[in-house]
Prior knowledge:
This protein has 228 residues and is α+β, with helices and mostly antiparallel strands.
Amino acid sequence: MSRQSIREAIEQAFGEFAEIDSFVKEVREIRFPKGKVIYIPGDMSQSLYIVIKGLVSISRVTPNGRGVILDYVSIHQFFGEEVLSGKEEIEGRWEVAETKQETVLAVVDKSLIIEHLFPNPHIMQKIMRVNLAKRQRFAARLEILLHREVRVRLAALLLDLGRNYGVIQKDGTLLIDLIVPHHELARFIGATRETVSATVSSFKTAGYVDNRGRKLLILKPVLLESLL
């Protein structure tokens, strides 16, 4: 990847700002293979990450040891927000970040954040808006996770993935442009892989979804919405 790729990722994540040329020169690039754990809870949060290429999952480990996926982070999105706490001491990570594909990241160290991002109100407002939208999405998903049956949880998840990663097809269907295996869907909604597989099968029979290769195709979003 070139410096131009890093600059593009930074501009998409934060917008343009006066010191961007010097900022880009100080940002590191790091590559990870698929399935690499980037950090776990308790690791020191010394950097913010922006995805240049690939896909990262953010998850938390429940008291019984199960990993629940909170979100995916895709190209030009950032994660590792613990470093934005503003505290001088280094915060510990709260979550698990793991690559789902071969991934290239821009690494923004805390010293750069303090020097260039914190003094810029426009950048900080954008970061706050992104984080607020993310937390609202988590809260809505948690409400469904706690109070609804598996088919409702799965319908809500598929609609959420469709909104964030969907590509509208010529026939009006919505392709979730990610390869999300059933065991990953199960980790999102706190269910077993077997239950998710059976529910996906029932959705196919009902005409809600279908497969497009290894990806899921939402045939009629309104039918999934009717389950909520």
